[in-house]
Structure formats: structure tokens, C-alpha cells
Please model this.
Amino acid sequence: MATPVYGYLPNDRPRTGRLILFGVQHVVTMFPATVLVALLCGFHVSTVLLGAGVSTIVALLLSRRRIGVFIPLFYGSSFSYIAAYLGVAQAMGHPIKFGVAAPDEVISVFQVGIVATGILNILAGLLIRAMGKETLDRYMPPVVSGSVACVIGIALAKAALDMSFTNGQWGIAFATLIATVSFSYLLQGRGLIGMLPILLGAAVGYVMTLVVAPGEISFRDLGAAPFVALPHLTWPAFTGPILVTAAFSIGIMAIATIPESTAHLYQISLYADRLAEEQGREKPHLERHVGFNLICDGLSDVIHGLFGATAGTNYGENNSLMAITRNYSGAALVAAGALCILLAFVGKLSAFLATIPVFVTGGLALYLFGVVGMQGIALMQERKVNLFDPLQLAVGATIMVIGVGGNIGFEGGFLPIKIAGVFPNGLPAIATAAVVGMSMYLVLSALRPQRDSAATSTEAARGEP
Model:
């Protein structure tokens, strides 16, 4: 008798006890990165957890109803938007401090950009469903999306170093970095614990602080925080002098997250189809629904933008967890979303996270921000971008110089090109770099066939082979 093949396909529902445990495991996997973005960018942790839970459940139920199969992805905070948030806050005169919630008027402006990125994702999804994925690649080629992702990580380098040197505690910051990298490498493939290098690294830095510099951690606010509290909701501010700047600089970052989301769907589709084949069942072929997946991405960001949560993306960490456990159950992710919503009402949780020292988070950021940049390079490698082609090289180089130089070299990351009433603080460097690179690619790639055709005609007239 053949041994049954263990695993759950997207529409499978585990028994209730297992369902809850699987949900907890998903939450533990997404928690460190999702909450870290909130702490870095001045969002309320409870609101971010609420947004992640609600958007994940909505996307799952919508996919099950409209296409007949759960698309098993979890929507957490995206690191791709951090530089844009920090720049907008700086322009509004409210620099972000780690673990301190930004004023409501700042978050409300962020929300406009988050809604904008949601709309861009939805439009991209509709375009793909109507015309195929090749159309997206034509307007948003890998050299643009990869270079933008790379710029985002590099542009955050100084922020990571500034946090690491806070209060002169750089030793603890670098110890946190070394611990996190070690856990990431040495525990890879070792089950649940191998999925938690960020959480473990933060724990090392936290404990080291308690031993070496206990005065850097205060539990005063933790004791005063209520056990149960309502999430802090804010609403988008669709008026104000910085409105267009926020919508442009935050919204355009969809250029970096759309390829990421698509890659995640292809990854999970490959593994789910393999499991179905081994079980002798019908393959779900999730890759067919790349357009619908982007629509769900966009809807999630619109929800986050209305709540006051961070812009999101579907999480590769949870994809890896599913690949390791061979559990692609959409019901398990619904359970995870429900648990996130419950956590959003735990007041002590936000207060405890605020006790994490800035320099410990700086140690994590040295790794995480660098990974964001490296993922851009990995994207270009995977998509075989030819950097020996003058056009590809020029587009990537231009994006890098404008994005990195502008973000680090000018206050708040705004280029000194001001447009009254629209961009009063100047053009946001990273967003401008993305638009310039995309425009350059579209124009020059349209001219190249004409140039090649003209050259061929000239050679033929001369009788050249």
C-alpha cells in the first residue's frame, strides 16, 4: 500500500486544532517584519496588524469566490515604501522617531499615497487580465523594477547607520546584526525556528541591552498601557500642499512591489502544483491568476490606506513557510488573519514593542535594508537583464544616480526642482528616478527598431551583407 503524501492544497481545510496552530505559525512568521516597518515609519502597530488581518482575509475570500481557488498569500508591511514615508514626514516638519507614532496629520498624508499604490496595482492587474503579462513587462521592464528596488535599499543605508549609532551603543547594534545574519544562515531549513532569524536577532540585542545598558530600556509606559485597546484609526487627507508629493512618491513604489508580488505567486504556484501531482489530484495552476493577484494586492493597499496601516505586499517569508511545511491551505491563512485582528486589540503589545531600543533595530536594519537592495539585483539576475546592452545599462545607471544621490544628498530626499502648489518641497528622488528610467526605456526602445531598420536599409543599398 502506497504511503499517503502529506500536505494541504489551497482549498483544503485542516481540522480545527491544526488550523489554529497553522494560523499561529503564519502570524509568528510575518510578525517581526510587519511590526518593524510600523515602528520605523511612525505607524500604530495595532492598526498595522488590523490592516494585515483584514486585507489578508478579504483577498483570500475574494479569490475563492471569484476564481474558485484560494490564492494562499499573506499581506504584511512592505519595506519598499520606508524611504518615501520618511521623506514625506521630513517635508512636513515631523521627522520620524523609532517606536513613536507620527501625528495623525502625517499618517493621513501617508494614506493618500498608500491608496494611490493600491490603485496602480489594481490597474496593472486589470491590464494583465486584458492583455497578458507581456504588456506589463513592456511598460515596467525588469531593469526598471530591479534598479528601483536596489535604490530603495541603498537609499536607506544612512538611516540604518544612524539608528545603529544611537546613544553610542553601536556595539550592541553590530552584535544584533551578527546574530541575525548567523541565525538566518545557520538555521535555514530547520523548521519553524529557521523562519525567525529577525525575531531571534532582536531578542539577542534586547537581552544584551538589559545586561550591558539597562538604562536604555524603560517599562514605565508598558505598565500603564491597557490590556485591551481599540486600534488607532485615521482617515486619508485628500487636501493639503504635500498631497501630490505623497501620492507620487509613495504610490510609484508599486514599480518595485508588482514584480515582487508576481514572483511570489509563481513560486507558490510551482510548489502547490508539485504537491497536487504527488497526491494525484488536479493542479490549482495559481500562476494563471497573476492579474487577479495584483488586483487583490491593490485592494489590500486601498484597505490599508483607509485604515491608516502601512502599504503592504504578500510575504515571501510565509511562502517559504508553506514550502517547508507543504501546507498551502487558504483556510490556515484565514485563521492567521483572524489572529492578527485579535492581536490588534492587545494594548500591552504595542507598549512592549516600543521598549525595543533604536540601536537594536538599527542592527536589524543594517541587514534588512541591505537585503531590499540585493533583492533588486536578484530580480535583474533572475530575469536575465543584459547590462551589456547600452539601453539597459543607461536606464539602470540613471535610476541609481538620481535615486541614491537624490535621496542621500538632498534634505528629505527631495530634488531641488520645486513646482508651486504641486511639489513645494521638490521632486521626491526615488519616485522621480523610477519615472525617468521608465520613460527613458519606453522612448529609446521605441526608437531602436527604427534605427536598426534604417541601418539595415543603408547596408542593403550599399550591397553590404
Observations:
- The first strand starts at residue 75 and ends at 77.
- The chain has 19 helices and four strands.
